[in-house]
Amino acid sequence: MFVSSKIRRKPFSRRRLVALLGITLSLAVVVAAVLLVQSHRLSSSTAFPTVSSELSAKRQAVLNVAKAEYENPQKALVYSEGINEPWCADFVSWVFREAGYPFENPITGYWRIPGTMTLLDYFREIGVWQEYDAAIKPQPGDVVIYNHYGYFGQHTNIVVSVEGNRIITIDGNRSGGIGLSQFDWTDRKANTLGFARID
Known about the structure:
199 residues; alpha+beta; endopeptidase fold (from Nostoc punctiforme); 2 domains; six-stranded antiparallel beta sheet; 5 helices; elongated
């Protein structure tokens, strides 16, 4: 008996073709998003910007603590007090506490505010929140919060430098560590909600 060595293949059905295109497009979007986020990250060899002596004592204290953590970072669980969670807001809370200006969680009363939206509520409650306005830029030491759909996702970080519209921030939980990022303040793709004026 003769058996053909050719394997019969089913032609792609329209449903399979649409599913394959959908998967391909989804992967392309994910890759593009990762590359976009990566493009805003500065190299780990980038020097921390100089902390100006013209800034207020509070801003200098916050930035000096942030600089020390950038240069000698600790393990993530230090900033989150041993809790395994996204820790960008924990890092911001920790820096301010170490600088001598602890936050007060509006839910627990504790210094650590682990969620970006709780941090936003706190800033609104104490009257320091500035809704995003392209014409009103944060200053070094201010805290920026982002919505889900921007370069950073739902995130928060501390401004360390402002040059024109170019903002440089220090981020906790950036690829699992601490790093510097940059973006154009007027670029709405960052999906910036606004910032907290720290003094």
